[in-house]
Structure formats: structure tokens, C-alpha cells
Amino acid sequence: HPYRGEGFALPVVEAMACGLPAIVTDAGPALDYASDETAYLIPARPGEFVECRVGDLETIGRPWLFEPDPDALVGHLRRVAGDLGAARLIGAAASGRIREHFTWARTAEAVEARLQALARMAPRAGSAGGRTMA
């Protein structure tokens, strides 16, 4: 999954949970759950759009992305095809990591903890101050 831009890449997490050896960009969201021990990481260089827009949509600031190295991608594909035993080991390590740390139960716990922390925060100046706005 050599992405240039990605939010979380849930299909990568699902594949890793199933024990498949993932080949992913070495930047962005995959680094939250993938490492050299659990995936094949493709080096990437950061890049920026020339304008403050993506297609017809204006943006605040210039959008950025990652350019995965195509030669490194080819190298990883060959590595996986050439050494299925090593690929299975990486897939097994990935499955263990995802199944331990990235379950829906863990996600719900993290969301609940964050919402509770936000609920404890004092209202900011200029906000409704806890009052319902009409």
C-alpha cells in the first residue's frame, strides 16, 4: 500500500491482523502501527502542492504528501516473493502487534478517555461557557 496521502489506512491494519506482510510508505499514519519488524517500509520524501488547493477545494496552507520511492517498492516486492519464510515471519509479528494493540475495544477505550479529558477541560474564552447557544 504505497500511499502518498492517507488518513489511517485501515485496510493495511486489517491485512496485518490477518498475518499478511504489508508493504507501506515509511511516513504518515502507518508508522503508528508498522515498523521494520512488522512491515516492509518504503522510504518516501515529503512534497508540497504548489497552490493552497486540492482540486477545486481551497485549503489553509499548502497541502503536503509523501512520494514513495518506486525502486524501493520493487525491491520489497522482490524480497517478499523471494523469501516467503521471512515474509511469513513479518506477517506473524504484524498480526500479533495489531491483535494486541489495535482492537476495536482498545479504540473505544482511547476515544472514551479522550472524551472524558475534553469534558474536564475549562471552556475557552468566547465559547458558550457551558450554556446552550440559541
Automatic annotation (TrEMBL):
Q: What residue ranges carry the coiled-coil annotation?
A: none
One annotated GO molecular function: glycosyltransferase activity
Query: Record's Gene3D superfamilies?
Result: Glycogen Phosphorylase B (3.40.50.2000)
Q: Any idea what this protein is called?
A: CAZy families GT4 protein
The scientific name of the source species is uncultured Candidatus Protochlamydia sp
